[in-house]
Amino acid sequence: MNQHHATRFMSPADRPMPLQMAGASEAHPLEFADPLRRLRLCGPDSQAPMPSHARLKPPGTTRRAFIGALLLCSSPLRSKAASAPPHPASEQDMKLQIRLDGQALDVHLDDNPTAHDLISLLPLRLSLDDYAATEKIASLPRRLSTAQAPRGHTPRAGDLTYYAPWGNLALFHKDFSFSTGLIRLGRIEIGMEYLARPGRLTSDWLMVAGKSDRANTL
After folding, report:
1. Distance from the first to the final alpha carbon of the chain
2. What is the C-alpha to C-alpha distance for residues 42 and 85, in angstroms, rounded to an integer?
3. HSE-up of 41 (CA within 13 Å, CB side)?
4. SS (H, E, C) the chain
5. What is the pLDDT of residues 24-71, one digit of tens each?
6. 140, pLDDT greater than 70
7. What pLDDT does 185 receive?
8. Residue 93 binned pLDDT confidence (cut-offs 50, 70, 90)
9. Residue of 140, 131, 126 whose CA lies nearest to 203
């Protein structure tokens, strides 16, 4: 009788133990073949203690996966990525001030090529004239860039805009309908009520936050 048949007729108590890790079920060795499961067992987010069978030496056929998962768990890159602070905003707020007869209008500029081109002209002294009882308009020394500009804009009271077909600035003190070629440059935050005064106004445009290529004096 060969060894196979002898084992078959042994009583359960006399049969040899199968070769597997003590205290582990048949499915346990397979867990080491999955590095992601190994990470879940030892990751910082896991609240449960590591099972005893996971601390035992794995079978030789899965040793490579076990070592790879162990290195991933202990890698400093993983903890640094989780704790890295968000990158600070790279763009500085751009603000200008429009002075009208001793009154100041604070304007927060948008981050677009046309607004940046306006900044390159500052400081400016411009005359503001009424138009359609809705806005004040001003002529510029030259036309501004319209790169990346939308087809148009629906202005709201307080919008600082550039009307590309005419090449002038338009400061709205009333809402208006969609206008093709109108580009928003920013928003008047303080002092919009001064724009509603009728008649021509002399205005000084100065940069108060951000960067201008010219000295901020008139």
Report:
1. 112
2. 24
3. 17
4. CCHHHHHHCCCCCCCCCCCCCCCCCCCHHHHCCCHHHHHHHHCCCCCCCCCHHHHCCCCHHHHHHHHHHHHHHHCHHHHHHHHCCCCCCCCCCCEEEEEECCEEEEEEECCCHHHHHHHHHCCEEEEEEEECCCEEEEECCCCCCCCCCCCEECCCCCEEEEECCCCEEEEECCCCCCEECEEEEEEEEECHHHHHCCCCEEEEEEEEECCCCCCCCC
5. 444 444 444 454 444 444 444 445 455 444 444 445 545 665 566 556
6. yes
7. 98
8. confident
9. 126
Domains of the chain by range and CATH? 24-83 (no CATH), 95-209 (2.40.100.20)
Q: Does pLDDT of 103 surpass 80?
A: yes
Identity at 121, one-letter amino acid code: L
